[in-house]
Amino acid sequence: MSNAKLLVVGELNVDLILNDIHAFPQLGKETIADEMHICLGSSSAIMAANSAALGVDTTFCGVVGDDQFGDFILRELQSKSVDCAHVRKLAARQTGCTLVMSYGQDRANVTFPGAMNALTLSEIPFEEPAVYQHLHLSSLFLQKGIQKDIELILKKAKAAGMTTSLDLQWDPAGQWAFDYARCLPYVDVFMPNESELLALTRAGSVGGAIEIIGPYLNTLALKMGKSGSMGIRGDRQVTVPAFEGKQFVDAIGAGDSFNAGFIRKYMAGAGLEECLREGNLMGAVNTTAAGGTGAFSDRQKLHETIQAFLGLELNPI
Ligand SMILES: Nc1ncnc2c1ncn2[C@@H]1O[C@H](COP(=O)(O)OP(=O)(O)O)[C@@H](O)[C@H]1O
Ligand SMILES: [Mg+2]
């Protein structure tokens, strides 16, 4: 890779993941989970950590509380070679946590946002314009301090010469207050999954949704779970199938790992299909270990997993 830098702006929290849960939780009752993992959570952090694992020079901009979860997050990011110079500890805040109840391909999450609400435009290092090539932003609706200024943030990134990508993620409030007509023209790669795209556009089908946002899109990278992904750029539309995996553990963070793979290729100037294929590959790799970063932690194992999916000799990453 070149020395091009990725700047990820977003939320930071801890995931407490429960797997193999015997039944759905019910008020007044108790059920057992056979597995628990405590790991780096948040879509943005998983994307950043896995980008760094893939060899991209990655800086994170975010805030945590001055507490044990905050220390854990900083240690995790640093151990994955993410530059944390722009992660600030806020004494008056608690670091957030997500309880993830994982049921195979899907999961039910409860999030305490904590410090993530405190991240605002003023924390983003726009004064270092020559340093960063690309800005990735995720989980807009969880970050009230960012949400209100999203149009300005995207404009500033473009004015600073960066390319941009946005993964809105789900809106827990169901309001989907994102002005796509105003904002998407400043987003180079828009990266929703199917249900998020439908909720945002209030369309009944993916085709209908694409008609609605089409006029404002640069590139769409639509994540479709086991069906892979679809890309749209100008008049071109391409679907790339998912990689078949045998070793499925959970799909937590698959979309964030897809983003890491896609953006790595995008920053290197690859074409749409190659970016989508790399996204699918990293999404599939993600599903072979617990949580969003498990499959990316050990370099040797990561290479072996990629190799097994590709069934080919690896290009060095
Ligand atoms: N079970 C799976 N097997 C293989 N690839 C998968 C699987 N689940 C997800 N992926 C890959 O990861 C990508 C992102 O996952 P998806 O579930 O669509 O995103 P999100 O996590 O944002 O909902 C998919 O486009 C696909 O390429
Ligand atoms: Mg997602």
Automatic annotation (TrEMBL):
Q: Which residues form the Carbohydrate kinase PfkB domain?
A: 4-293
UniProt superkingdom: Bacteria
Q: Which Gene3D superfamilies does this chain map to?
A: 3.40.1190.20
Key words of the record: Kinase, Transferase
User: Which GO molecular function annotation, any one, does this entry have?
Assistant: kinase activity
Protein name stated in the entry: Carbohydrate kinase family protein
Q: Which organism is it from?
A: Dyadobacter sp. 676
